[in-house]
Design goal:
Layout: H1 5-17, H2 20-34, H3 38-46, H4 50-62, H5 78-81, H6 85-93, E1 97-99, E2 108-110, H7 114-125, H8 135-144, E3 147-148, H9 164-180, E4 184-191, E5 195-197, E6 221-230, E7 235-241, H10 247-261, E8 270-275, H11 286-299, E9 302-307, H12 319-329, H13 337-346, E10 355-359, H14 371-378
Parallel strand pairs: 2-3, 4-8, 7-10, 8-9
Antiparallel strand pairs: 1-2, 4-6, 5-6, 6-7
Helix pairs in contact: 1-2, 2-3, 2-4, 6-7, 7-8, 10-11
Protein name: Rhodopirellula transposase family protein
InterPro entries: RNaseH_sf, Transposase_36
GO molecular function: nucleic acid binding
Length: about 400
Amino acid sequence: MELVPEVKELLIETEKTLKGHARRLFMARTVQALGEGGQCLAERELGWNRATIRKGQRELKRGIVCVDAFSSRGRKRSEEHLPNLLTDIIAIVDGQSQADPQFRTNRLYTRLTATEVRRQLIAQKGYSEDELPTAETIATKLNELGYYPKKVGKSQPQKKLPETDAIFAQVKQINEEADANEQILRISVDAKATVKVGPFARGGKSRIPTKAADHDFQPTATVTPVGILLPAFDEVFFYGVTSKVTSDCLADRLIDWWERARERFSQITTLVINLDNGPENHSRRTQFMQRLLEFVQQYHINICLAYYPPYHSKYNPVERCWGILEQHWNGSLLNSIDTVIQYARTMTWKGKHPTVELVTTTYQTGVKLTKEAMEAVETQLQRLPSLEKKP
């Protein structure tokens, strides 16, 4: 007996789409339908294994199923042998990663190579050389966790101060100590680029037909999102500010947030604030330092300012929220302030919606202390001795 080419091809292709018990039953029933000599024919014409056919025939005859342990086959993933591996990789890499400077993607870009991550796993986390996977595997794990080495537009800073690496190391140490202490709460604060309100194309895509203005004329209003992120809780607070963001504006947002949160965090004695070196909040901004000193005196809580190096603002954790927000509303027309606020409220960060408020207070620019007044404030500040002239 011979099989015509069309039937032979159909049987071979069908068998390849199946696996395990279903595959064996198909082979057994096919051989049964071929009649006497079916096993030899299937082996010769279709390339089927006789042992597999017989196993399927026994299952078909007795009505039992041989369980296929596919999950136990092959090499185990590294994290199955080392259950803390992924957590330890994140602990090493997260503080050395930045958001996409242009907010075109949610990816994070890390300063560390896979080889360096592997070295730090051995030095910091106590892994041995033999038990860790190769640098190539570590690179794969970094990609799976969302950390990429790709260089994008501004990923290379315009300048790098000699103190940059020392500042990064100091910020990393401060953040780790804060996250490990139940009496310290770490937050990340920053303002996003100002959003023009009007029928402007924002470069996004939409499945709903949307027509934007052909020219970017004068906006009807502007809104500057100010964000406060609690990294340990994956909670985000957004404030849509219609005025210019100043030192007083940022200080007021900190007060608004703390009034809302301080009962919940009654055990907290110190706030660690991650910041960039923006003109409104750097450590030599006299009005900003004065307002923070007033905050400390009013609420009887210590504040530690952990600044990221100049020209490295995208490493500030709250910056990652801006990429999500930008992609969330990019395909829509933000033609009113209310639309901006509603889109911010419907965004999700780590599965949670942010708390969003509109701030219409008008803030005066150019407010600063006299030299004598700032000298009095300086007596209440403690700067790092090795970086006293840098934020």
